Amino acid sequence: MEKGGAENPNKINKYACACSIVASMISIIFGYDTGVMSGAMIFVKEEFHISDVKTGVLAGILNLCALVGSLSAGRTSDYVGRRYTIVIASIIFLLGSVIMGYGPNYAILLAGRCVAGVGVGFALMIAPVYSVEVSSPSTRGFLTSLPEIGISTGILLGYLSNYVFSGLPLRLGWRIMLGIAAIPSLFLAIGILKMPESPRWLIMKGRLGEAKEIMFKVSNSPQEAEFRLREVKKSVGIDENCDDDIVKIPTSAKSQREGIWKELLLKPTPSLRWILFAGVGIHFFEHATGIEAVILYSHKIFAKAGVHDHRKQILATCGVGLTKFTFIVVSTFLIDRVGRRKLLLTSVSGMVLTLTGLGIFLTVAEHSDGKLIWALVLSIITTYAFVMFFNIGLGPVTWVYSAEIFPLKYRALGAGIGVAVNRLMNATVSMSFLSISNAITTGGAFFMFAGISVIALTFFYFFLPETKGLSLEEMEALFTKGSHSKNPSKEVEIGKR
């Protein structure tokens, strides 16, 4: 049996990293669907002559339908496994892309967007959960950030696709932009079957022999693998010294899992209530602070600042994608060294400043009809700076933090609820930004997001403790403490035990 190689507990396990990279491919497809619509909607609006309201619905419906996908994905992944849930997400993306690429009218295009939205819900829930379950505590932040890198990669590819295909005839260009995502979806649905299943899910199903084989592959030492196996078995209700290949899960554990909805939402313990509050809260603020307004409507922002040529708008938008990708990558190397909490507080503090600046410069640019070059330049710079601060902390930490804090039996459901809130806020911002901008100006909208960011900063400071270095099985104990504790009481180095 292959046993994970190196003894260094802080070394990234190559097998676990490969598993997380493959799982993150589904996030690339989702990111592409998000980014490509930013430019495609310019040409869709031109061909179908739709209003701003219908444009907003087309942009935001993806996330409303993702609510269905995320809530369904939790139960689905508990029944069929994490791996097959990724297969389902890929097939749904494939179908949605084909429908959107066909898109003879607005209604069918909207239907394709809805189908893809369900796939988004599945992808956003399952990729971080799978990554967090195969990774060691010392490298969990890095590996669980890979889906967010996938999203950023996809968004950048979507922007580049907008620029490459924008020169094609109107009826062809945007259809290729939207339909081409079907190709990677097909390959992923086939390739994902070569991935191993999550060892924690296998233990939850009593398949200890398979779980042990995989756990040794994704751990850096036999000692670490044995420790992780004992911890998970104990959390599921199996004797931690049991060495059978297949065991029957205790009836008490099964009955507990059947009532997890009630336990999590209606009668949670104080620690579980805090975990749910933190997990839902971080997802709420990720999009309530306005990132989707920039991702989807950056061409509108640049138009308000004074950039009026469509191809120049799309080119400037590519800068947003490149900035997002660059700082997500930087963040993945910091998250396990600096910690989730420090990155989060630094990130949101920077967002408050850049959103305020963007509000000021856009207001000046709008009142000058785009004639003040300095206001145009500073509007673009602060847009990029906002994207930088978001992606150095709040963007990746949201997915790492919410995936790691829930106890095993609540993890899929908790992650699903978090993603549902995330998509609801995403849809709210996507579908209302144009109307809000028309009502209080584009600059005013960003002043509003700056105010929400101040509230987010306060929430994160008081309610989100540091999780760096703790095993998944220790999270509930962390949230039992009476303070937000800036540092965990102990940093676990499992490989040294």
TrEMBL record:
Localisation: Membrane
Superkingdom: Eukaryota
SUPFAM superfamilies, per the entry: MFS general substrate transporter
Family annotation (InterPro entries): MFS_dom, MFS_sugar_transport-like, MFS_trans_sf, Myo-inositol_Transporter, Sugar/inositol_transpt, Sugar_transporter_CS
Keywords of the record: Membrane, Sugar transport, Symport, Transmembrane, Transmembrane helix, Transport
Similarity comment text for this entry: Belongs to the major facilitator superfamily. Phosphate:H(+) symporter (TC 2.A.1.9) family.
Protein name: Polyol transporter 5
